[in-house]
Amino acid sequence: MDITLIRTFLEVSATGSFVSASERLFVTQSAVSLRIQRIEQSLGKRLFTRSKAGAELTSAGREFEKYALSLIKLWEEARQQIAIPEGFSKSLSIGAQYSLWPRLGFRWLDGLRANMPDLSIRTESGLPDRLMRYLIEGSIQVGLMYTPQLRPGLTVEKLMEDELVLVASWADPTLDLTGRYVFVDWGPEFVHAHAIALPHLTNPGLTHNLGAQAAEYVVNRECAAYLPARYISRDLKEGRLHLVPDAPVFPFPVWVVWRDDLDPELAEIARDTLALVVEQADANQEAIIATLREISENDEIEVLGETPDIQRE
Asked: By Cβ atoms counted within 10 A, which residue in 30, 95, 120, 194 is the most buried?
């Protein structure tokens, strides 16, 4: 069966919508409908119940979903194995959110290539829901993300805390950021904690849902925002960005998700290599937090979302 049809079926199943599936696959809604019809005609069963609310799997659809995932997994295994370039004996596919590639994912790649010269590596970038689907399908074997999901066949491990710190693009900034603050949406927990601790900055008129990519915007304009300390460490050292004294921080957990069927030897080396990268990232972040503590009143740092009497030591 055409693997494109299988992927389309799984996309509709994941989103519960022909419209959403067409947007994610960059095809028209009619193309999605025709693909699903072709599968249904081949199987002789209706796979979805269509309604104004969306598309819901029928009992036959739920049964077929298990086989569809297996077909995708077998296809990906075959494709990755056959695609291993000459001179390489193993392959690894890694996915990560954009914000987690600089200073973390890329350094992991460096370590893997140094430790395993015969390892062929392929990378992907995307939002957590797409990375999770890639993991389930077998398109990638390990993923770095902020908001993973528990799924059979996958192991989720907490990797580190990404320290979100408030920085500005001018020297000697203060918490008086009216008119120069950019809100970076780091998810519902951050939004809620931010609204409580910094209500005067909650609606600045400009919101970025770009993650760490917002750093480029901040650096090149006179504005301030919450960004990962790990990501902006170089900008801080070179004076393009400056820590805002007395600003609370927000620890944002980073997770790594492994496929359980990953080659044990490869998984062990990948874990050990990643642990060393995380150790260095943690050390860099601690240095930045120490600097923030030094320039803040009473050498104390509050944490967004925690009560005022609980402070960062």
From this structure: 95
